[in-house]
Design goal:
By secondary structure, the protein is α/β, with parallel strands linked by helices. Helix content is about 45%, strand content about 20%. The strands form 2 sheets. The protein has a 5-stranded mixed beta sheet with strand order 6-5-7-4-8, with helices on both faces. The protein has a 4-stranded mixed beta sheet with strand order 1-2-9-3. Helix 4 links the parallel strand 5 and strand 6.
Length: about 260
């Protein structure tokens, strides 16, 4: 067990690491969470060095689901913010959401926002004619801004954190916010039940603890919420992944 670590989704480690360090220390002090912290600022390093050794952590919806379904982790608590994806096009490209249907979309593979966009698109009768795979969200934004690809999918949070200059060159033409997907905490199934119960109790009651309240304020959230079910998240991931695979199979050279 001493080889396991506490870690974060790299997006969060980049944005507000000091507050997350305080939270990890809070869990260590209040719940006795034994896993030393190790943080990663890029997904390649996280998946190679962090995720395989994870004992406890705060993960994006896709990694949370993989930890629970593939590795037997226990979900402890979730953020109060629903996940959201936006469809963007160039600022000088007059478009409406329905114009997405049959068009080329730039996406980042193996990311929840991409699966969510494809899943919600299906529900709204919007299906890309083909997809182009980007290496990062910023590459999607750049391709769209330059007119290399007419449309792209990115996390709403990524769009909102773009520089003013980058946002001037693109516009949002569609948005989907869902109440069944969130970032959340998980704990390894190897952990004893008493550790699981302590960690969950501390997280769900942080807003009543003065130190916990301060940390939550620094993270910009009111409180942690319980995770009631993951079925709808599984559905979105499975259908979005299948939709992407079908598009790749019919698009030579897309990978």
């Amino acid at each position: 067990m001493d080889k396991l670590i506490f870690s974060l989704c790299p997006h969060d480690a980049v944005r507000n690491l000091p507050a997350w360090i305080e939270l990890e220390l809070h869990l260590r002090q209040r719940a006795g969470c034994p896993y030393p912290a190790q943080y990663f600022t890029d997904f390649e390093s996280f998946y190679k060095q962090g995720f395989p050794r994870l004992g406890a952590g705060y993960l994006n919806p896709l990694d949370l689901l993989a930890a629970v379904d593939e590795r037997g982790f226990t979900p402890l608590a979730r953020a109060p913010f629903p996940e959201a994806v936006v469809a963007i096009t160039a600022a000088d490209h007059p478009s409406q959401e329905q114009d997405l249907n049959g068009a080329t979309w730039a996406i980042v593979p193996r990311q929840f926002a991409s699966y969510l966009g494809l899943y919600v698109g299906q529900q709204r009768g919007l299906k890309p004619g083909r997809v182009v795979l980007a290496e990062s969200w910023l590459q999607v934004v750049r391709w769209v801004a330059e007119g290399r690809v007419p449309y792209g999918l990115v996390y709403k949070g990524v769009y909102e954190h773009l520089s003013a200059l980058s946002r001037e060159n693109v516009q949002v033409i569609g948005e989907a916010e869902v109440d069944f997907a969130w970032h959340g905490f998980v704990l390894t199934g190897q952990a004893p039940p008493e550790l699981r119960d302590r960690c969950q109790t501390v997280l769900l009651n942080m807003h009543h603890d003065p130190q916990g309240r301060t940390i939550l304020d620094r993270l910009g959230m009111e409180r942690w919420l319980p995770i009631d079910q993951l079925d709808r998240l599984r559905e979105a991931v499975n259908q979005g992944r299948a939709a992407l695979q079908a598009l790749l199979d019919q698009t030579p050279g897309a990978r």
